[in-house]
Amino acid sequence: MATCPTCGNKGLGLKVFGCSTCNRPGCVRCLAIPVGLSFPDSEGRQATAYSCSWDCFERAVRYQMSRGQTVSPWGEGYVFMGRILTGEAAWRVNRFHVENLVVAGRYEDAARLYEKLGMWKEAGDMRARSRQQVVTQVHVDMNALLDQLHRLGLAATYTCPTCRSPLSITGDTRPDALTRCAYCGSMLRQTDIVDAVTRVLGGR
Ligand SMILES: [Zn+2]
Ligand SMILES: [Zn+2]
Ligand SMILES: [Zn+2]
User: Fold this and answer.
1) Of 1, 3, 34, 134, which sits with the fewest C-beta atoms within 10 Å of its C-beta?
2) Residue 133: closest CA among 97, 108, 113
3) What is the mean pLDDT of residues 36-61?
4) Residues lining ligand 2 (ion), CB within 5 A?
5) Does residue 62 have a pLDDT over 90?
6) 90 C-alpha vs ligand 2 centroid, how far in Å?
């Protein structure tokens, strides 16, 4: 008769094994949360790893992630720490992973992952942040480009796609003067203007 040192469960041939995330010994009754499968061995067998609680599992995942471990897609599922995660474990690991993506400013990747997690509102928020990020980057690029025009004494011409008026861009042009066409007032695509200026700078 074997006895589980953690929960006191008794049974003939009761197997005592360890929590895969904290190593605490336990049995089928107290280590009941399947968190992952090993990769198949040569005969296709996969060992299941169990944890004593989701708390324990998540603590281990956070710790490993803080040390640079990352989750990667594998077939339909995900692998973390050399194990193929079970459905719920994968969901929990990805919840942490997506937080890291946000911290890293990878908003589009975060939006896609939030969608996979079924967290639509968060996905939408990330898309909004991602768009904001692009606007900021273009703005910074524009300032740098106008600086270069100024230094080189060059001018670029951009044709308004709506009214076909030629807009001249020089080093003295203010970036906000380039948001709308001076003739017809329609919004201008910042990326197109960046392209036009870049062509002039590149063609010298
Ligand atoms: Zn544990
Ligand atoms: Zn037990
Ligand atoms: Zn126009």
Assistant:
1) 1
2) 108
3) 94
4) 4, 6-7, 9, 26-27, 29-30
5) yes
6) 25
